[in-house]
């Protein structure tokens, strides 16, 4: 029995291509490498998606806070009685100030996430051509701190890839060596 690396279904030992999905069935080592790369690519894509969604949602929240600030800014004008105004206006000023602070924070964090999502395209493209780029990126503690600070959903996928690279060190080295070999044979 050969289990397909792509669709996981069992094929006869004699076949070279999966009878169910058409994937090429090479030896087990190749299948293992392919599966590692595919999963790596998938988790990187999820990480990028998390940055992208946050990069869109946070600026929208920032805009909502700006709108709220405007709504509150118009309110004290309706307060006629002087005594109430003396109490209320400082409270409103404080609330408006906090809304503006939230807006700035959400806008900033949103932009950081958008930039992170754009920067990931390079890493994604390197998975199948030069895994060492991904290895360097995944191995750095800086990545984890960044995600922990700016995107807790992305952090999950950063940690998954971090652990996968650490626990499959030999496999990763073998893939990198093969990729370098292929690259050199073209030159
Ligand atoms: Zn298959």
Provide a descriptive summary of the structure in words.
With 187 residues, this protein is mainly alpha-helical. The protein has one domain (27-186). 78% of the residues lie in helices and 2% in strands. The chain has a two-stranded antiparallel sheet. Strand 1 (2-3) and strand 2 (10-11) form a beta hairpin. The model has no long low-confidence stretch (mean pLDDT 87). The protein binds zinc ion. Zinc ion binds next to loops. Zinc ion binds at residues 4, 6-7, 9, 18, 20-21, 23.
Concise structural overview:
The protein has 187 residues and is mainly alpha-helical. The protein has helices at residues 28-74, 82-126, 131-139, 141-150, 152-167, 169-186, and strands at residues 2-3, 10-11. It has one domain (27-186).
Topology:
Layout: E1 2-3, E2 10-11, H1 28-74, H2 82-126, H3 131-139, H4 141-150, H5 152-167, H6 169-186
Which regions have little confidence, pLDDT < 50, spanning 5+ residues?
none
Topology pattern, helix = H, strand = E = EEHHHHHH
The N- to C-terminal Cα distance equals 38 Å
Q: What bound compounds does this protein have?
A: zinc ion
Radius of gyration: 26 Å
Number of E-type strands: 2
Main β-sheet description: 2 strands, antiparallel
SS field, number of helical segments = 6
The mean pLDDT is 87
The helix content, as a percent range, equals: over 70%
User: How do the strands of the widest beta sheet line up side by side?
Assistant: 1-2
């Amino acid at each position: 029995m050969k289990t397909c690396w792509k669709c996981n279904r069992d094929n006869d030992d004699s076949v070279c291509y999966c009878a169910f999905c058409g994937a090429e069935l090479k030896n087990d080592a190749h299948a293992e490498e392919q599966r590692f790369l595919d999963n790596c690519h998938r988790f990187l894509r999820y990480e990028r998606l998390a940055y992208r969604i946050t990069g869109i949602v946070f600026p929208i929240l920032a805009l909502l806070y700006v709108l709220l600030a405007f709504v509150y800014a118009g309110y004290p004008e309706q307060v006629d009685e002087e005594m109430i105004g003396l109490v209320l206006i400082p409270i409103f000023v404080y609330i408006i100030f906090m809304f503006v602070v939230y807006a700035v924070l959400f806008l900033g964090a949103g932009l950081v996430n958008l930039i992170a999502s754009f920067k990931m395209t390079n890493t994604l493209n390197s998975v199948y051509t030069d895994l060492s780029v991904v290895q360097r990126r995944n191995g750095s503690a800086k990545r984890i701190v960044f995600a922990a600070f700016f995107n807790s959903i992305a952090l999950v996928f950063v940690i998954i890839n971090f652990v996968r690279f650490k626990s499959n060190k030999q496999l990763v080295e073998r893939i990198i060596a093969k990729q370098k070999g292929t690259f050199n044979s073209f030159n």
